[in-house]
Known about the structure:
This protein has helices spanning 15-23, 37-46, 62-68, 97-105, 128-140, 203-207, 227-237, 266-269, 309-313, 321-329, 338-344, 359-367, 372-383; strands at 4-9, 27-33, 52-53, 72-75, 115-121, 142-149, 162-169, 182-183, 275-276, 300-302, 333-335. The chain has 384 residues and is of the alpha/beta class. It has an 8-stranded mixed β-sheet with strand order 3-2-1-4-5-7-6-8, sandwiched between helices. It has a 3-stranded mixed β-sheet with strand order 9-10-11, with no helix packed on it. Helix 2 (37-46) links the parallel strand 2 and strand 3. Helix 1 (15-23) packs across helix 13. The N and C termini lie close together (11 Å).
Amino acid sequence: xxxxxxxxxxxxxxxxxxxxxxxxxxxxxxxxxxxxxxxxxxxxxxxxxxxxxxxxxxxxxxxxxxxxxxxxxxxxxxxxxxxxxxxxxxxxxxxxxxxxxxxxxxxxxxxxxxxxxxxxxxxxxxxxxxxxxxxxxxxxxxxxxxxxxxxxxxxxxxxxxxxxxxxxxxxxxxxxxxxxxxxxxxxxxxxxxxxxxxxxxxxxxxxxxxxxxxxxxxxxxxxxxxxxxxxxxxxxxxxxxxxxxxxxxxxxxxxxxxxxxxxxxxxxxxxxxxxxxxxxxxxxxxxxxxxxxxxxxxxxxxxxxxxxxxxxxxxxxxxxxxxxxxxxxxxxxxxxxxxxxxxxxxxxxxxxxxxxxxxxxxxxxxxxxxxxxxxxxxxxxxxx
Length: 384
């Protein structure tokens, strides 16, 4: 295959670019486009030779796009209009303007790209934006497949369920005929036992990793979780095809623990933390608020294995404030470092942050990024 010319829209910190490298597909990113200043600093730091346009997509003319002569578009449009914790204003949200501009532009391109890959949050699959996307692809003659995939499917102990769409211009289908059905696991790639095409987990294993399911019933245990929630975590930790968290951690001697130990907000949020150990095979989705906020932004790591978590939380409600704090401190809970979060998101060791980017900003741009390994597998599927 000749080297593909790739246009990377909403390029962020370069997750799509790294996925292209990980996939082994001959490709060159001809231009990356994003308006986030911090993300662009990180991107330029890691890909200094790639043209990076710091401009709005809707400010780029049809003629400028045509001159790029690209074979593939990869993109992660803004997720805020579709996320469950947002207002879910969909196409009424101003942040979808650039995406709608792309859909308007696509049929008018001098040459349609052969391949398209799009990533977004759970919620996009029921949006009006998705309806417009599918309509445009059909009108342009694309075959496409939609999937809901979490990194658990590729053996990474992190739940980050995302919507993906892969499309290509071809008389041949993508694995199966274009269907309205959204897959919840990877289809098997050709020659799936070869190193280039690893075997993927079954839908059953994939489903076990998804934190979006609402759990009902059950009594409250020593933490604010139901019996069903506790059982689900046990199930997740029993999936041996998923690697342990300790494989993604930095050496302890390289971490300044003072920067990452949880502060006294432990007292307020101790009962709602998602606590994992190095031997766990699960963690919850890391968001852009990680490091600033405690609740619902990602898992925290228990560093003291000698202390049993049950001994800390059992009867905690009967302790004084000082006793509660002292108990919680025994666990030595800390945030995952940005490097560790990047590891769980599939970024290679060659990925680094510029020295001037504060840790809080590192978490923020990572939270807005994607899982590199998942996208790499989808790219292999797309061009196979």
